[in-house]
Amino acid sequence: MKLRQQPSDFKVEEISEFKISKTKDNFKLYSLEKSGIETFFLLQYLSKQNRIPVQEFSVAGLKDKHADTKQYMTLPSNYDLKTLNEQNFKITFLGYVNSKIHLGDLTANRFEITVREVLKGELDGIYQKSRNIAEIGVPNYFDSQRFGSAIYKEFIAKEIMLKNYEKAVKIFLTQYTKSEKKFIKEDKKSILANWNNLSNAKIYNGPLKLIVGEYLKTKSWLSAYKKIQGNLREMFVSAYQSYLWNECVKTLLRQNLDSKAIYSIEYTLGSLLFYKRITQKEAQSIPETFQTISDELVPKESEKKIIEKILAKEGVSINDFKIKDATGNFFKSRERQVIIKPKEFSISNPKLDDVNDRGRENRYMITVRFTVPKACYATIIIKRLFNQ
Q: pTM value?
């Protein structure tokens, strides 16, 4: 199975409810369609081309680079956009709204995903699973995209919670993925080779140099950590909190479902549990939501023992989540839906894969369409159907 071989293989459209007016109001509302380009990169480009501060552009979500996406954008009405259409994006003025868009200001996302290189022997199983997915749903896990900062399954936020500040900074400064730019990899290799004498490290990347410079000046790993960009530190917190939530939901499923109906599928941080079937009684035993963990968490009765079990396994306590005073970052408890049921679900008949088949007539492609609430991962639906 292959995903995202072409941007058009992964299409996503935001669904929102805006009160649009033709009469001039505080903000202009635009439809932003793009292909093969990251949202924030495009906003930076529009900012430069139109000489508008980038912070004036507002969107509800940062859509994937490797996709065809349609989303909404607002801009204060006193600005005019001159750059509206180029090869990989199109911007359409829709009207005026009273207030700007904030992150999360959408109700759902509509997906159209083409999965390629499906083998003939896999087809029956895929269509069998598709028959009841809209009825029984899938666990609402955070998928691998959430955990880009946990390169070797090491969580920077966890080390901060345990006050292992040096280890947290070392993970950030020395670990890298294959996709990172070569010059950053070289900087990180130099930092690792000179970890015990960082003044000898050859560093050309500005943000990395700033962090190392702060440590050399203060001899404080906590001070060095706080020089990491704020949005990245927020991602570290979100990644660990999301991992813990996944682990809690896996435990919840084990406790309430028939073990013979449960199976696992691999993802970046290990495996996720799914179910082949679920009875009405079992469905009623699973709470509608499960909270994310923070130091301010007041667990429900259905959550308490599960959270205690997961935290004991991790070697952390609720009190360890109090990191705001030291770092400025914090964990927040939120209700997250445990099971999601895709709406408007449909699955196409298989077609020969025009990219991968190469005349063998044993490689197929299938297109799946569905709508899920905001903050849900479409790739979890794909994992459930295609087993990977």
A: 0.91
Domain 17-105 has CATH 3.40.50.10140: no
The per-residue pLDDT for range 208-244, each reduced to its tens digit, is: 999 999 999 999 999 999 999 998 999 999 999 999 9
Q: Which one, of 228, 237, 88, 92, lies nearest residue 159 by Cα?
A: 237
- The residues, any chain, with a CB within 8 Å of residue 56's CB and separated by 6 or more, are 47, 75, 76, 79
Assign residue 23 a region (left: φ > 0; alpha: ψ between -120 and 50; beta: otherwise). beta
The residues near 104 (Cβ < 8 Å, ≥ 6 apart) are 60, 61, 374, 375
- Among this protein's residues, is 64 annotated catalytic? yes
CA 28 to chain centre: 28
Q: Where are the domains of the chain?
A: 17-105, 157-232
- Catalytic one of 9, 25, 64, 320: 64
The dihedral over CA atoms of 267, 104, 157, 326, expressed in degrees to the nearest 10, equals: 180
